[in-house]
């Protein structure tokens, strides 16, 4: 059990930032990979990018 006063908040902040950046990178790669084929298969759809997300 940890006392909240003894937790290293700087380290936790860096870890959270790393996790957010990794998630953004993963999502960006996913959009890049799937958006172009989706765009070709669903031409004329006004919300193409939102649907891919």
UniProtKB/TrEMBL annotation:
<dbReference type="Pfam" id="PF05424">
    <property type="entry name" value="Duffy_binding"/>
</dbReference>
<protein>
    <submittedName>
        <fullName>Erythrocyte membrane protein 1 SD128K</fullName>
    </submittedName>
</protein>
<dbReference type="InterPro" id="IPR008602">
    <property type="entry name" value="Duffy-antigen-binding"/>
</dbReference>
<dbReference type="GO" id="GO:0016020">
    <property type="term" value="C:membrane"/>
</dbReference>
<feature type="domain" description="Duffy-antigen binding">
    <location>
        <begin position="2"/>
        <end position="53"/>
    </location>
</feature>
<dbReference type="GO" id="GO:0046789">
    <property type="term" value="F:host cell surface receptor binding"/>
</dbReference>
């Amino acid at each position: 059990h940890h006392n909240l006063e003894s937790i290293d908040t700087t380290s936790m902040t860096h870890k959270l930032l790393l996790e957010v950046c990794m998630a953004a990178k993963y999502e960006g790669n996913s959009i890049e990979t799937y958006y172009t084929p989706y765009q070709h298969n669903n031409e004329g759809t006004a919300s193409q990018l939102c649907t891919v997300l």
